[in-house]
TrEMBL record:
Secretion signal, residue range per the UniProt entry: 1-26
Provenance organism: Holtiella tumoricola
Protein name: Stalk domain-containing protein
Domain Copper amine oxidase-like N-terminal: 608-652, 662-727
Cited Pfam families: Cu_amine_oxidN1 (PF07833)
Keywords: Signal
Length: 733
């Protein structure tokens, strides 16, 4: 197509009728019709169709006089022959005269059409540009750069590398993607690119390239879709010598008209030594091509087998107060560091995985091979998992590449946990467990105590102190509750009353004591960290409480989000909402039960010796004759003794019942004995001791094998087979 025809096409596209209002000031709109890739000393020809477009304002289009202006060049030389051959543009709209390498003269006779001034010549090093000198004319003056960047060399290609890949010490693997970018359109057409490993490297390019092998490639910008595969082959010199450290990639003829780039993917290497003994460290290559600077690139790292375990960000948590989402990543250091047949298990220390629904989590993460067991608080990554879609099966683990597995999960901490929160990854793939810190923890409150000492079997015993301090303002939320009770509810403690005060800060509260609980409701959140003091606890104990120390606990919705749901109904003072203490702060040894209250027991006298005879109501105490309400019996060769008779005579003894009729409890010298009708178990201070005969309750009297009566009460006994009598002896203490 001749220049006049080309100009006609461009001019036609520029002549667009618009409804834009007429501009009131005389001026022109000047612009290039396209942007070219500019290389120093590489000529721009008329075939490339670069034009400066000059469009007059609507006011000036009616001016019939010829308009003359000049175009000057900077770092650019106009080519004389291009303008001698084409002295004017289409329909004599504009006449262009070459005055010198740096100046053109333009005469426009028809301003109703866009004037097209061809730009042809040679750009020089620097910033090639043309300047419109519109003085004494109707055009707008201005400078117009031919390129957006400084022209510095004639290099048409450039090479860069993507992220360096990890290769195991056995040497097999792939190097980083290498991108060859055109600075000028079609610069890669019919080119060869060589990629060379240094002679000092323990690696060579994979042997499959000896006879040539296809590379996976991706064309971008102007080369998108123009090339999908290329052939890579070992370099061979004129004498036929093959170099397995040098790879040659040949590009076919490609005409795009717009510059682009090609990404070379998955270039494989292997160990030069068949034993696979490759030194660790960076792997570099040199990339060469015509019209390209020799470029050294880091494309891989040789590393030992292994796995990295990371978290994207270490979060901050408040104990008992909500959760944060984390992202965990397990990545192979080198290919084949993991075995797909060996699962990876994730557990958590000083926290828990906050998953509302096990089913929903497992469904949402099924494609990743992830599942959670909420009871165990454990997440499993099944490396052998395969996804099936549209009849196609895709494994999540690929054997010939470095695998990375990422997943997100919420983590939280309980009220007593102090952190840091650590996730542990365990697997037969690992020599030892891997750990990563995922969160730091700040306690919501700090609790201090002063213990109370009580006696069993007494009412309204007063003492003790519990101090709850916020670590920051607003730690205890409005309309949430703090609940305090005995953590060992099986024993007979009953909190009847307590003094509850705000002793620091400005938090506002209401409080009550109900069903053995101290309940504190936050009615206004604090603006400054506050302190709540609970003192003078009024505690009643029954006679079932043994000597020792006992824990209380601080729970409720104000302490932990886990304490939000109520289960069951309150039936009596010992039956509380246990879910309010699902996540509680333990007050260790808060109550101490001292020496048992013996002053009001029914018999404080200490007998030294009693003699009972089988089948007889008559018995003696220290030789004094007495009559019993139940006689010793012999059953199945076992002597059964009425336990109350013996216990009463030895003093410092009390009786009680647990869980209603059928169980008898005996107290003596700090010991607690329990016998249940029909059971052969004696429970002594919480320890189950098997007996050789079962406990029996006959006519309201409890009969126990003689041996266990003596052992339980801490006294000695003898059996006289001739008289069928048993003698119990207790020596004075």
């Amino acid at each position: 197509m001749k220049l006049r025809q080309k100009l006609a096409v461009v001019l036609a596209s520029a002549m667009v009728i618009t409804a834009v209002p007429v501009t009131t000031m005389a001026a022109s709109t000047n612009s290039f019709n396209k942007t070219l890739s500019i290389v120093a000393d590489k000529e721009i020809t008329t075939d490339q169709e670069l034009f400066l477009q000059v469009k007059y304002s609507d006011n000036d289009k009616t001016n019939k006089d010829a308009d003359v202006f000049f175009i000057n060049a900077t770092d650019f030389e106009f080519k004389e022959s291009s303008y001698k051959e084409h002295a004017s543009t289409v329909a004599t709209t504009a006449k262009v005269e070459w005055l010198s390498k740096s100046q053109l003269k333009v005469t426009v006779t028809d301003k109703t059409q866009t004037a097209l001034i061809p730009v042809a010549g040679t750009p020089k090093k620097g910033n090639p540009a043309i300047t419109v000198d519109g003085e004494d004319s109707l055009v707008t003056s201005g400078k117009y750069s031919l390129t957006g960047a400084e022209v510095v060399t004639d290099k048409l290609l450039a090479a860069t590398a993507g992220d360096a890949k990890n290769i195991s010490v056995d040497g097999y693997g792939s190097i980083a993607d290498i991108t060859i970018e055109e600075k000028v359109a079609d610069s890669l057409s019919n080119k060869e690119v060589t990629i060379t490993l240094p002679n000092s490297s323990d690696l060579i390019f994979n042997s499959k390239y000896a006879k040539g092998a296809d590379l996976t490639v991706e064309g971008k910008r102007g080369l998108a879709g123009k090339v999908t595969t290329l052939t890579a082959k070992y370099y061979q010199d004129e004498k036929g010598n093959v170099d397995n450290k040098k790879l040659v990639v040949t590009f076919p003829k490609m005409t795009a008209g717009t510059r682009g780039s090609v990404v070379l993917k998955g270039i494989e290497v292997q160990s030069e030594d068949k034993k696979g003994n490759v030194g660790t460290g960076e792997v570099k290559v040199t990339v060469k091509a015509e019209k390209m600077e020799d470029t050294k690139l880091v494309v891989a790292n040789v590393t030992e087998y292994g796995v990295s375990f990371k978290v994207d960000e270490v979060e901050k948590l408040v104990s008992g107060k909500g959760s944060k989402e984390i992202e965990l990543a397990i990545k192979e250091n080198a290919v084949d560091s993991l075995d797909s047949k060996k699962d990876i298990y994730f557990t958590i220390e000083e926290g828990y995985f906050d998953v509302e629904s096990q089913v929903k989590f497992n469904e949402a993460n099924a494609e990743k091979g992830l599942s959670i067991n909420k009871d165990l608080d454990e997440i499993t990554l099944d490396l052998g998992h395969k996804n099936t879609k549209d009849g196609k099966t895709t494994p999540i683990f690929t054997a010939d590449k470095i695998n990375e597995f990422k997943f997100k999960v919420n983590v939280a901490t309980k009220a007593e946990q102090k952190g840091p929160v650590v996730v542990v990854a365990s697997s037969k793939n690992f020599e030892e467990d891997m750990k990563v810190e995922v969160a730091t923890v700040t306690p919501a409150v700090k609790v201090e105590t002063e213990a109370i000492t009580v006696k069993a079997g007494l009412k309204d015993q007063v003492g003790g102190k519990i101090v709850i301090k916020e670590t920051e303002s607003e730690s205890l939320e409005k309309n949430k509750e703090i609940r305090i009770n005995c953590a060992e509810a099986k024993y007979g403690f009953d909190v009847k009353d307590a003094k509850v005060k705000v002793t620091g800060g400005d938090i506002q509260i209401d409080s009550e004591v109900k069903n053995g609980e101290i309940i504190i409701k936050v009615t206004r959140t604090s603006d400054e960290a506050s302190t709540i003091t609970i003192s003078d606890l009024e505690i009643t104990t029954d006679r079932t409480v043994p000597e020792g120390t006992f824990d209380f606990q601080v729970g409720g919705t104000a302490i932990s989000t886990l304490n939000n749901k109520k289960t069951g109904e309150v039936k009596d003072s010992k039956d509380v909402y246990t879910s309010q203490y699902k996540d509680a702060i333990k007050l260790a040894d808060f109550v101490k039960v001292g020496t048992k209250n013996t002053e009001d027991l029914p018999n404080a006298a200490v007998a030294k010796e009693i003699v009972l005879t089988a089948g007889s109501m008559a018995y003696t105490v220290n030789g004094e004759a007495k009559t019993a309400d139940a006689a010793v019996t012999i059953k199945d060769a076992r002597t059964m003794v009425p336990v109350r008779l013996v216990a009463d005579e030895f003093g410092k003894v009390d009786f009680g019942t647990i869980n209603g009729v059928g169980t008898v409890t005996v107290f003596k010298d700090g010991n607690v004995l329990q016998f249940q009708n029909g059971s052969n178990i004696m429970n002594k201070n919480g320890i189950a001791i098997p007996m050789d005969a079962k406990c029996e309750i006959v006519n309201g009297r409890t009969f126990i094998p003689v041996k266990y009566v003596a052992d339980g009460l801490g006294i000695s006994y003898t059996w006289d087979a001739a008289t069928k009598s048993v003698t119990f002896t207790n020596y004075a203490k």
